[in-house]
Each structure stands twice: as structure tokens, then as C-alpha cells.
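quick one: 1-O-phosphono-alpha-D-glucopyranose bound model?
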Amino acid sequence: MSIRNAVIPVAGLGTRLLPATKSQPKEMLPVGKKPIVQYIIEELHLCGIERALFVTGRGKSSIEDHFDDDPDLIRTLREAGKEDLLEELQYERMGVHFLYTRQRRQRGLGDAILCAEHFAGDEPFVVALGDSIIGRHKPSLIVQRLIAAFEAHEASCAIAVEEVPMDQVSMYGVVKPASDSEVFEITDLVEKPKREEAPSNWAIAGRYVFAPSLFSAIKQTGFDHRGELQLTDAIRLMLREGKRVVGVRLPREEKRYDIGNFESYFETFVEFALTDPEFGPRLRQHARELLK
Ligand code: G1P
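yep, here:
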């Protein structure tokens, strides 16, 4: 496996989660015991990622604090014999190197990724959106399968996709698959289409692999009606230039948890808390009493 770099855009304002996100990043909201970003780093680490660049923005510094080394805390935990907590907090043991850069203005996902141009250099890289967890009982290996598909098909882009109900297509980027296979060529894609204009109900699921040629495609992409540079539009441009774009389907057991709005955040938190090995059984009992 040759791809070692990942970009994690976390600059979004999180307005759909106000007031919870008034002074804390949505990516730091807890899901069960851990903040969302920690799940993402654990997933990427399992898939061989060694360098992670967070594209942050105003009010996001607690993400950096979370991944900082904290010798005082580590010492206190060690003295108290809390080995299990130590395991979960010593990120540097994973060997992931954390870097941060800032998107200075809110100009869309494409613009956020452009901030990673120097970081990526001439090498392909992974993009993992900071507001999605994939897999519950164990982290998903979708990024590994994306890398494998990217390499096997000599693609310029590989995208994870998930099936969504037709009435939700307007919330996502939606792809047009060329076949029914697990890994398939994408012949077109549209960002947040109307239901009647959607090319399928396979939605972009927040994990991608890109060749560095993405950056020139983003630079040629125009701003949309909201003044944003859409990543999906840049990928569409790559397709029009004759580059190969492949999709990899997420199986049901590797469900994607979207934390971008309260409805799915609540569902995600409850699902993770109810299945927590330590606190889940008691919570399930409590929930049954509440629901009587
Ligand atoms: C972004 C992407 C979209 C993708 C979605 C997945 O949209 O632009 O293509 O389907 O993430 O979560 P956002 O949720 O940031 O509006």
C-alpha cells in the first residue's frame, strides 16, 4: 500500500448543529466516549495512513488540542493505573503525524482541499470528511479498498458511495455507476441534485482517493451559486478531461454515520452509546424503562 497522506477537511461552520457548535467544532462532538475526529483518525490509521492534514478554520483549535501530547495527563493516568485510558489517548503511538492548515474563508469543500496542495505534493492522497464516521463495532476498511481500486484501475479518483433513499439524494453528491459491480466506473456525478435529476441513489459517502491532478481541476472549477467551489464539480471536470473515476460501494455493515445535523447526530450517539460494551447494557435497560 503506497498512499500515506490523508486530508481531513474540518473547516465547516456546523450551523445545522447550533447551539451545540457555537464555541466548539462539530467534529469534536462526542459520539459515545470519543469525539468524532478520533474515530476518523483510528479508521485512517488502520488503513495505513501516516500523515494527516486537518484543514481547519476559525474556532477549531480544540481539534489540535485533542491530538496534542499531554505529558501531565499521561503521568496522572499512569500513576492511577488507568492503562485502558492511556491506550486510547496516546495517539502518537499509532505513528500518525498530525498537521494543520487553515481555510481562511468559507468557500466550499473544493477550496478547503486546495489548501492541501503543498502537503500532497506529487503523491496521491486520501480525503476523509470530518463529519462522518464509517463502521460502528470496528472501523471500516473502505479507505484500503478505495486505494486498491484506485491503483488497480489506474484511476485519478476513487470514491466511496452508499445507497440512500431516493428522497434523500438532494442532500448528497450522487454518482452515475456504469455497472452493478462492487467497484465500478463512474460516468457522471452531480452535487445535491433534485430527486428527478439524480443519476442514481448512490451517494458520495465522505471518503475519496485522489491523484494530485485534482488540484488543477479544482482551480479550473467555477464557484457555484452560493459562492462555493464544489469538490464534486472538480471531479466532474476530471471525468470530462477523460480521467478515470471509480466508485466503491459501502456494504450495509459498514454504515456511514453523518454528524452534520441533529437528527443523524442523535441517532448516531444513541446507537453508539447503546452498544458500548461497558455502559450499553445499563443504558438499554434505562431506555426500555423510558419508552414504556
Ligand atoms: C459533502 C459533499 C457531498 C457528499 C457529502 C457526504 O457535502 O459535497 O458530495 O455526498 O459531503 O457527507 P456536505 O455534507 O458537506 O454538504
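The mean pLDDT is 92.
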